[in-house]
Amino acid sequence: MDTGFFNHILFGNSIKAYLLFFGIILLCILLKKIFSRLFSKLLLLLFGRFGKEVNAAIFVDLLIKPLELFISLWLIYVAINQLNYPLNETIFMRKTVVNKIELINSITIIQVVDKLFLSLIIISFFWIALRIIDFIGHVFAYRASLTGSKEDDQLVQFVKELVKIITVTIAFFVALGYVLEINVLTLITGLGIGGIAIALAAKESLENLLGSFTIFVDKPFVVGDFVKVNGIEGTVEKVGFRSTRIRTAEKSLVTMPNKKMIDTPLENMTVRNYRRIKFNIGLTYNTPVEEIKNITQKITDYINTHKKTSNDAIVTFENFGTSSLDLQVLYFIEMMEYNPYLKVKEEINFKIIEIVQQSQGNFAFPTQMVIHHNAISDQAKIG
Q: Which ranges of 51-90 would DSSP assign to H, the alpha helix?
């Protein structure tokens, strides 16, 4: 075969170099998904026994994207290195004189490309590491869900986030060391006063971080508890490093700094057995005394016999209102989820209306009585 054609130079590169470049790019496009699935299954062999109770497809799905990026970067880098021109062109040059010796520092396109690809490869590598951490966290979260305690569910999420933050920090310093060629140890040692200034600037973040550790140590609440703090009521969904997420009854998501979660008086309504219900009923002033006694007794009996309440309900004639005779109703509903709690409360309210109506009682509403006197005065007629 005549090799002269393949060795023909075009724009500084041989035809063979161009064919290798486009061939590797085509290989990357066609086979990156296959290669990534193959590598993910090879990695699964290392973690298969650890996560055997979890579907293996989860592991593959987590790794498919970062592995595709990692493999594509390597193949594209190999393809680009098949070309010689114009990647060897100088784009920056600086002359310096040291001890009367002239030094020339130059930067070529290929050096910039090398740094760029090295940065992307480091990112993709640590992306794979983060996805593996996600899988390990998923396995531990599944195991924690099989236990009756909610504390281990909360701990799994916290530790997973901690490990991911440490991994990202390591990735940052690796990039500084290998891409920018900075002596990381010297950088850390030389922080000195600058580090103190950064710590002071991040004072609030550090307080929230310490708050998260306090939450895990003291355990004032765990994920899934219904809490009331700083005027906000809702279910704790997640405890992070900086904040706690609370899902309110209106389904909105409130993010509360951990510092406030430990500094502000917090009511954990999950650990109590019952919710207190207290309100007034107004009856009209023409309601007979015997009917008032009958109504209070029937309401008390009904609430005490309800299967979702305690047996210590109190219904009393409390007050002479401006336009009503006020009965106070006080009882406790067994602790449950918010929506079922509202249904029980509604059921009892309907029954109270029914008892009052059956007892020939009437609910009062604000009224005013106007007494009009007609005074007829005789006037003397002057005629």
A: 56-80
φ/ψ of 279, rounded to 5, equals: -160, 170
Place of tokens 């393809």: 79
Written as six digits, the tokens of 197 are: 């200034």
274-358 maps to CATH 3.40.50.720: no
Peptide bond into 366 cis (omega under 30): no
Q: How far is Cα 88 from Cα 105, in angstroms, rounded to an integer?
A: 14
Residue type, 23: G
| pLDDT at res. 376 | 47
Question: Does the predicted model carry a pTM greater than 0.90?
Answer: no
Map out the domains of the chain as residue ranges.
Answer: 9-190, 206-268, 274-358
**What one-character-per-residue DSSP string does 33-58 give?**
HHHHHHHHHHHHHHHTTTTTTS-HHH
Helix (H, G, I), strand (E, B) or coil at 215: helix
- The strand order across the sheet containing 266-268 reads 253-257, 243-248, 232-239, 226-229, 266-268
- Rounded CA-CA distance 49/70 in Å is 25
* Contacting residues for 204 by C-beta, under 8 A, at least 6 apart: 257, 259
Positions in the chain short of pLDDT 50: 1-2, 98, 375-383
Please give the CATH topology (third level) of the domain spanning 206-268: SH3 type barrels. (2.30.30)
Predicted pLDDT at 304? 92
Strand partners, 236: 246
Pairing of strands 13-14, 9-10: antiparallel
Alpha carbon distance 334, 300 (integer Å): 16
Q: For 332-343, write each residue's pLDDT tens digit.
A: 988 767 788 889
What pLDDT is attached to residue 295? 93
